[in-house]
Design brief:
Elements: E1 6-11, H1 19-32, E2 37-42, H2 44-47, H3 54-70, E3 79-82, H4 88-97, H5 102-106, H6 109-115, H7 125-139, E4 145-146, H8 153-170, E5 178-179, H9 217-225, H10 242-255, H11 259-266, H12 271-297, H13 300-329
Parallel strand pairs: 1-2, 1-4, 2-3, 4-5
C-alpha cells in the first residue's frame, strides 16, 4: 500500500478563531484528513514573537487545541500537538538558523510590514527569525505538503531554500516540501463584515467585523445586522457589492448550494433578510462545534492527555530527524545514546 503523504499545518494560539479560519482552513483540513498523514500543530512558540500574558497564552493554547477537535479533526487518526511540547522544534530552529544567511531573512516582506512603524529596540529577534522556526516545524516531520495562505508563501519558499542548502552542504536529510495553497476542499476566503476589502482576521481592531467560533447566537446576529453592504436595499445577483458578495459567499460555503440556487433564493430580497439568512446558517454550523468545545474544555485532564499522546507520537519522528541532523553537522550524541 502506498504511504500517505505527510502534511504539516498550524495556527497560533493568539486572538479568537473565527469563521474565516473555519471555512478557509479548518473545514478543508477536516475534509482531507483521511488523505494524508497529518500533523496539526498549535504553534505556541511563534506566539512569543510579541508580548503575551502567560495565563492568557496557556488558556488560548488549550482553547485552540479544543477547537481543532471540536471542528472535526480526529486526534486518533491525525497527530495533534502543541509545538513547545516537542523540544526538537527549538533545537532544530537554532541549527537551521546557523545555516540561514541574514539576507534571506531581511527580504521577508511580512517582517518588513510588521516592523515598518516600530522602533528597532521594540522588535524582538524572534520576529526576525520566525521563518526559521517555521522551517524547523515543517522539516522535522519530513513533510511533503504544507497548507499555507498567500501571506505565508514566502516563508515556505525560504523553508525550501534552507532545506536545499542544508542538503547540499551536509548530505540529503530533508524532504523539500511543496505548498498546498488551494486545498482540495476548496477553502473559502471570508472577508471582514466591516471592511469587505480585507480578510476577516484575528488581529482586526474591531470585533464587529469578525465572527468568532465561540460567539453566542445573539452576538452573531448583531454582527451580521451591522455588516457593511451598500447604499441599496435589495440584492442584485448580477452585480453585488463586495459586502453583499461576502455574505453570499459565506452562505454558499456553509450550504454548498449552486450559483443557480443562490440566485433563485436571494435575487431581489432585502438586505435585512439576506443578513438574517446568513446568520441562521452560521449559528447552525457553529452550534455543534461550540457544544463539542464545551465538552472538551469541561475535562481539561482528558484534553491534556490527548495533547500528550500527540506530542509523544510527534517526538518519535522529530527525534529521528534531529538525530540525523546532529550527526551530519558533528554534534556528539548524548551520553549513552550510541556512537556518532
Amino acid at each position: 500500500m502506498t504511504e500517505r503523504p505527510t502534511v504539516f499545518s498550524g495556527m497560533q494560539p493568539s486572538g479568537d478563531l473565527h469563521l474565516g479560519n473555519l471555512l478557509g482552513a479548518l473545514r478543508p483540513w477536516v475534509l482531507e484528513q483521511h488523505l494524508f498523514h497529518n500533523y496539526f500543530c498549535v504553534v505556541d512558540l511563534h506566539a512569543l514573537t510579541v508580548p503575551q500574558d502567560p495565563l492568557a497564552l496557556a488558556a488560548k493554547t488549550r482553547e485552540l487545541a479544543a477547537l481543532y477537535i471540536a471542528s472535526g479533526i480526529d486526534p486518533d487518526s491525525s497527530t495533534l500537538l502543541v509545538q513547545s511540547h516537542v523540544s526538537e522544534h527549538s533545537e532544530l530552529a537554532w541549527i537551521l538558523g546557523c545555516f540561514t544567511p541574514m539576507g534571506w531573512l531581511e527580504r521577508m516582506t511580512q517582517y518588513k510590514d510588521k516592523t515598518r512603524h516600530s522602533a528597532q529596540e521594540r522588535i524582538s529577534s524572534g520576529l526576525f527569525t520566525y521563518p526559521v522556526l517555521m522551517a524547523a516545524d515543517i522539516l522535522l516531520y519530513r513533510t511533503n505538503f504544507v497548507t499555507v495562505g498567500e501571506d505565508q508563501r514566502q516563508h515556505l519558499e525560504l523553508t525550501r531554500n534552507l532545506a536545499t542548502r542544508f542538503n547540499h552542504l551536509m548530505g540529503d536529510v530533508f524532504v523539500i516540501p511543496e505548498p498546498r495553497i488551494g486545498q482540495l476542499g476548496g477553502g473559502a476566503r471570508v472577508m471582514s463584515l466591516e471592511d469587505p476589502a480585507s480578510k476577516m482576521s484575528k488581529s482586526d481592531d474591531s470585533d464587529w467585523g469578525v465572527i468568532a467560533l465561540l460567539d453566542p447566537p445573539d452576538r452573531i446576529r448583531a454582527k451580521f445586522r451591522r455588516a457593511k453592504t451598500d447604499s441599496g436595499s435589495s440584492v442584485d445577483m448580477e452585480a453585488p457589492s463586495p459586502g453583499v458578495a461576502n455574505l453570499l459567499d459565506i452562505y454558499r460555503a456553509l450550504t454548498g448550494c449552486s450559483q443557480d440556487a443562490l440566485t433563485s433564493e436571494f435575487q431581489g430580497i432585502g438586505y435585512g433578510q439576506l443578513k438574517d439568512k446568513v446568520a441562521d446558517q452560521v449559528i447552525a454550523a457553529l452550534e455543534p462545534i461550540q457544544r463539542r468545545y464545551r465538552d472538551l474544555t469541561a475535562d481539561p485532564v482528558g484534553l491534556d492527555a490527548i495533547l500528550a499522546r500527540g506530542a509523544e507520537a510527534a517526538r518519535g519522528v522529530a527525534s529521528a530527524t534531529l538525530r540525523e541532523v546532529r550527526s551530519r553537522i558533528g554534534l556528539l550524541p548524548p551520553s549513552g545514546s550510541g556512537p556518532l
